Amino acid sequence: MGKQVVVVGGSVAGLGVGLALSSLGHRVTILERDATPLPPSPIEAFETWDRRGSPQTRHSHAFLARLHNLILDRAPDLYASLREHGAEPLRFTDMARQHFSDSELLPEDEEITLLACRRITFEWVLRRHVLDSGRVKFLDGVDVQGLEAESGSGGPPLVTGVRVRRGDEHTSLSADLVVDASGRRSRLPHWLEAIGGRPLREDSEPCGIFYSSRFYRLLDGVEPPVMEGAIGADLGYMKYAVFPGDSRIFSVTLAASPDDDTLRSVLRVRAFEAAAREFPAVRPWIDPAVSEPITEVHGMGMLQNSRRHFVDDGEPLALGLFPIGDALIHTNPITGRGCTLAWVGAFLLADALDREPDDLRAFALALHEDVEREITPWYDAALMQDRDAIEVEALQRQGVDPFATQREDGTANPRAFMRSVIREGLVPGLREDLVLLRAFMRVFNLLESPTDLMRDPVLMQRILAAYRRREEREPQVLGPSRSEMMELLARAA
Ligand SMILES: Cc1cc2nc3c(=O)[nH]c(=O)nc-3n(C[C@H](O)[C@H](O)[C@H](O)COP(=O)(O)OP(=O)(O)OC[C@H]3O[C@@H](n4cnc5c(N)ncnc54)[C@H](O)[C@@H]3O)c2cc1C
Fold it and tell me: By Cβ atoms counted within 10 A, which residue in 178, 299, 473, 483 is the most buried?
């Protein structure tokens, strides 16, 4: 007999868990606060859908291979529907053939396939698919305001449902299991406190960037530019990337420190365009002979890496409840992992419930163990990467070279050395060595664990070999220097 499950939040994580649980026979009700029903088509959704509960829908999104493969395996009909609505697979094998004439491909290279799709199209198709399945009840305009619970005798409280508001009506809905998929601004800490649970511990650190994204449409009859190597780069003071989407639409994202007023000017169209044109990987895409802009520049700030410890000291803070998606862990959007990790979490949750259907504590502990193995390492990796990126940006701002392997007093600077190895070994190595590119793409796409690359002695040797060749190659210009960019933005302003 399936369980009665209430899911708070009807975005990528909530819909994913709805799909996963309903396919196992559970009765799922998704409650979504935004009172904005599904527009008739993804085209109208892009133009008019008011998804203020998930404002990142207006930003560039990458859908990584782990998610692509999960959809293909667990929801093939959804995959077909995404393709019908213009989503395109982006295959590593095509990329490899383009860059390595003698490329020796492996059968598992097919696994490295991303999905090019706008976030709004992805969510529209996903919601349409879940609604059409007839197995999930989806109620919009419903604001979950708290939890119903029985106090556990000495143990954690047992959640028995949610308290909701719909218009002026206040009511409750009972459930065997409540899944919190209400995103990064989840009210879970307050809800737990209100039912007498232990405090929900949260770790949070800034990503060090704000986001600015603009969408463009390829002109009729024009082919998309050939992707020569990476379509993004990290210049220290600014990160940029081109995100191919569905239906001949793509977007460009520029991200920089929120503390820098001059760099923040890219939130305005004129400065955004002036900056984007300076990046060799972006320039051919936004050439007026190739594409036309179809939106303003969308901005987003307050970006944090955050993690909530719902199972703390070996015990869940409540039974009959679990957070997933951004409500549990979210990481720097520039790495493009959020939707993938949300879906990994959704299917881990469904599988854990399948293994432990009659014991809510055992279910929570099993799921926590899976999350620690499959999701938490990506949070830890994001923290390490962002701490270093914030330091690099701050040093550049002070006019100090963050890549100087020797300090002023003559001693070696191991952190700067590692940065140089990445910049002058790993990054160019990806263009020169197929083995390295494959290994990098597998980690980037969450097909391997995040620590594998630099720990693998064979790969490390190849990275160091590429580093030793640094004097032999022409330096690749990924964009202007910080001071050149500052001048350019000042002029654009
Ligand atoms: C700028 C930016 C760019 C990103 N780029 C990428 C990318 O390239 N690739 C990628 O995979 N991920 C990316 N992400 C992350 C990704 O968008 C999220 O991980 C993804 O949306 C999954 O989120 P979610 O469903 O957990 O939460 P959300 O999408 O935030 O949805 C939460 C939902 O819960 C609803 N809700 C909230 N409170 C309540 C309540 N009390 N009652 C009822 N409903 C409620 C909200 O209305 C909303 O619909 C990006 C994020 C940002 C901010």
Answer: 178
158 φ, ψ (degrees, to nearest 5): -100, 115
Given the CA of residue 300, which atom of ligand 1 is nearest to it?
Answer: 1
Q: Each residue of 94-138: pLDDT tens digit?
A: 999 988 887 799 999 999 999 999 999 999 999 999 999 999 999
| pLDDT computed for residue 27 by the predictor | 98
Residue closest via CA to ligand 1's atom 3 equals 333
Residue 53 CB less than 6 A away from ligand 1 = yes
What's residue 452's pLDDT?
A: 66
Helices 12-22 and 119-133, packing angle to 10 deg: 30
* CATH 3.30.70 domain extents, the chain: 209-300
- The CATH superfamily of 4-143+304-380 is FAD/NAD(P)-binding domain (3.50.50.60)
Length of the chain: 493
Distance CA(328)–CA(119), nearest Å, equals: 20
Cβ 12 under 6 angstroms from ligand 1: yes
Query: What residues does CATH 3.50.50.60 cover in the chain?
Result: 4-143+304-380
Q: How far apart are CA 157 and CA 198, in angstroms?
A: 9
In short, whether 118's Cβ falls inside 6 Å of ligand 1 is no
- Give yes or no for residue 482 having a pLDDT over 90: yes
Distance 391 CA to ligand 1 centre (A): 28
100's tokens: 């390595």
> What's the topology of domain 209-300?
Alpha-Beta Plaits (3.30.70)
Ligand 1 centroid to residue 183 C-alpha, Å: 5
Reported as a single tens digit per residue, the pLDDT across 30-79 is 999 999 999 999 999 999 999 999 999 999 999 999 999 999 999 999 99
